[in-house]
Records
---
Amino acid sequence: MRQVLVIGLNGLTLAALYFLVASGLTLIFGMMRIVNLAHGAFYLLGGYLGWSVLQRTERWGVALLGAAIAIGCVGLLMYEVLLRRIEKEDMRVALVTIGVSLIMADQMLLSYGGVAYSLRTPDWLRGAFDFGFAGLVYPRGRLFTLLLAVVVGIALWAFITRTRFGMIIRAGVDDRDMVSATGINVRVVFAAVFFLGSALAGLGGAVGGTTFSLAPGTDIEYLLYSLIVVIVGGMGSITGVAVGAVLVGLVSQFALGYIPAWASILTFALMILVLAVRPQGILGRAA
């Protein structure tokens, strides 16, 4: 019983981290129809920058905020300089973002080397939380990741569906020319979306660097799992990403716990099954 609960919590906390990263990816795609293949590199750079800020300030919250803002600015710069003029050409966007990802990976290896880094956990998150039943205790840091993902998810949902800015974004997706005709600068709105989506990757990197570790190759791993989460949940749907993250997190952790040789196979099988039955994803809209 205790083992099942621990594995379930491992799956949910891993899903929380996947959600933080993949929500930025699906936000950009859902609003702008851009698949940013440099999103994994943004995650790793956010983790490294969070580590650097923590080394200088000794403040974990500042490290998370600094990583999110810095990566938001990096994403905004990439959009304005490289992607804005070609955003409707899918192949060129894919090639440019892959190129940016490779350049960033090379420069991060040059700057931080091939060793693993971890952000030091603040004192108030150290230790374990006792649930008071079944002898279940669990690290506070991982429970905080789960809570943070829930707060971010609710905030994103409210931002998109309950604010005027969110309504402008949704209207701009459906008919950009009509929104522009009302005097709203759609370019500024979409730039803000790219900043927010990239900032979520940076925040995920700093949080992931606290829960796990950061090393070369982590960028590819999180880009891959973010894509799986978005495909399973439905491209462009924040709620779908939450559902996809939970499914991928639980399947991967229970498979790793009981049939480790099949863990990766079952995760990809989940994606293939969803694509076969519902190509637009569980909560995605049909094209």
Note: The chain has eleven helices and two strands.
---
Amino acid sequence: MLALKLAYRNLIGAGLRTWLIVFVLSLSFVVIIWHKGMLDGWDAQATTDLIAWEYGGGQLWNKNYDPFDPFTLEESHSKIPDAFKKHIKSGNITPILITQGTIYPEGRMQSILIKGIDKNQDILKIPTDKFLIEDGFIPAVIGTKMAKSNDFKIGDNVMLRWRDVNGTFDATNIKITGIFKTNAPTVDNSQIWIPIESLQEMMKGKNEATIFVQKEPMESMQTENWIYKSQKFLLTDITELIKMKSVGGAVFYGILLLLALLAIFDTQILSIFRRQKEIGTYVAMGMTKSQVVGLFTVEGAFHSVLALIMGAIYGIPFLSWQAKTGITMPMEGDDYGLPMAEIMYPKYGVSLVITTILIVMIATTIVSYWPSRKISKMKPTEALRGKVQ
């Protein structure tokens, strides 16, 4: 208790120098929590959107399917196993058939992916209820990115060309019956969704599928031809991206924290040099050298306590405001293929706050103790005379 009182009195007595260090240290608290909160918020939003729009509870891939190699699409579909049909009927899984195609908007030729999906499915948020058959045209739904890049509107007829399982090219008109907004660019960019029955008929691949999306994880459905892919596997890309961004951010707030710790270290060195008589007096009054080292360590570490209080004064209102209003992103994430919402909301967890506080306080204590070890080597008599040691 005595050490805390002396530490507080000495720090307040140092005036502006103390408050400058405390402000920079408090800024480290707030910036670390804010930055990590933004990344955690992005991670949560992207995970939620990708599961809702594309991954579901997990997927079963045809053994030849490789989403990064479009040349495998011709060979990556096969008959739906009889054992899966009861799960399709009960709504536990939904089949998706995928093939390449070409459209000709405004006289241009554009390669796309044609995806056939069950119009009665409710696992993904793809608006299959918009599959309204009119005038004999095949109904199709597309994302806003696809619609914007090709100037498509609801009701437009689009010429579509594809190749069936026998390698024969064919073409027909489809009608845009719905346009959906999504934060998952992997179900939007250069893609057209149509009823799976129509695509199976177009490809002459009756009762075939490329992947199955599960409502809940069911690894037991894996067979020799259908390979199970868990949510964790499917979310690997976004998880790795968030980790990479975290490392980049750590460099930034690491520099900020280093500046504050350097100032504390410098202050401790200067304090020990200028207060040698005071140190000698403490020893002469009966304090051991370890107790004096502890006193100076507490004094240095007390910067983090004051920084925590100062950071709470302006940080809590700021972080609360950010959590409520979010940040409007200056560009659309799907321009870069990222599952990023227009407004990003940070997510602050209790573990994040506690971890940040512990890291900063432990680092401050270590930096304060380091120069204070010099006290244990001082001779009290020479310290009382103010002789430089």
Note: The first strand starts at residue 58 and ends at 62.
---
Amino acid sequence: MLTFRLALKNLIGAGTRTWLNVAVTSLSFVVIVFVSGYYQGFIEYAKNIVIRTEAGGGAYWHPEYDPKDPFTIDDAHGPVPAAIAAQVEAGLAMPVLVIQGAIYPEATGRMMSVLIKGIPPDQAVVDIPSAELSRASEDAIPVLIGTNMARSAQVNMGDRFYIRWRDANGTYDADIGEVTAIMDVENYQIDNGQIWIPLDRLRKLALMPGEATYVATARGTELIEAPADWLTRDITFLIQDVLQAVEADEPYAKFMYAPMLALAAMGIFNSQVLSIFRRRREIGTLMALGMPRGRVIGLFTTEGGLHSLLAIILGAIYGAPLFILTAVKGIPMPYDAAEIGMLFGKRLFPVFPAGLLLGSVILVAGVVTVVSYLPSRRIAKMKPTEALSGRSN
């Protein structure tokens, strides 16, 4: 305790030099926490948006279905097994039929390849405004599309365009579709290159009665062992792209901390070297009075380590309002992330869990303490007589 009080007194007595180091270290602490929270917020948002609008509580896939392989789409359809159909009847799941097709919007003057997805208009499994498909006109197929698809096809509400598809017999057919709703779901995976129409209508057009490509379940629904070679896909599998993207990007995120930590560590290191050089007589006096070298080293290391404590307190004073404000109000994104294949929303809300704050405190305190200890080791080589005379280097 005596060492701590003496170290704190010396630290405060150093004046401007101490507070400059504390200010730089606190800035490093705040930046590390903010960047980590920003990154954590992105992860949470990406997971939630995929679960809420696409994955639900898990899914059952037709054995031929692979969304990453377009050549599997033509064969990826079949009758829904009875056990899964029971969950559909109970409102715990919804079948989705996917076929390949093309649309011809007049505004673009060109044909666009799309995935045509059939969804029950009355479903409540995922957060897609499928009820808008109930507003059907008699002479056109009701179509639900995302904002990016609408922008790409240059269509608006009420616009009509030709839809072409190939049915189960391999015969091409076409009809007119009408945009009944444009959804803003912030999930490009159910937006880009896709149109949604009523499931019964698509089954009839494609000559695939009672068939589906996959069945999505509601959140909280217990997944059963899929029969008839269908594949059970849990949430972890369905969001694996998000998890893999996060895992691949994690080293780069950590690399961002390095410059800030290096800046703080450099300031503390230089301060310690200067302090030991200028206080040689004090060190000699302490050792001449009988203080062990190890305790003198501990005194200087504690002085350096206290920089981190003061920096964390200072950082909390001016950083906490910033963290709370951004976590509540969010940070507006300057661009549409869906266009570049990113699962960002229009605003990103950083997340600052207790583990993140504690980890950042330990990281900053650990680095500062180690950097403080390194120059203090020179004290062990000093002779009290040389230190008192000021001849020790």
Note: The mean pLDDT is 82.
---
Amino acid sequence: MEWLIAAMIAVMTSSGVFLVLRARTFPVVLGLTLLAYAVNVFLFAMGRLQIGTPPVIDKSALAYTDPLPQALVLTAIVIAFGMTAFLIVLALKSRSELGNDHVDGVHKSVDEREASRQQADMGEHP
């Protein structure tokens, strides 16, 4: 079972890194989300999740599970959700300002290229 979890974490991490290195904003957002999922699964696996044992120490319980990894993963899920929402809003604002969804924002939109070409044409023929 451990090798399956390790392989799943490896696939999510490699896919996330691959998508983060793309030039468009949607694959970058998707890649960061995959990286967040990989970290969450890693934290769960490192916390030695036990099924059927209480997280609170009780004299009647024979064993207990550590609630710290679950609390960390819950916090990480909330932070990842907020980060994803911020990135989507930032990407939409960048798209409305620049007219494209490139991460670097250098590429001009079709309208800006057309306007600069018209200005160049008017400059040549006054």
Note: The chain has a mean pLDDT of 84.
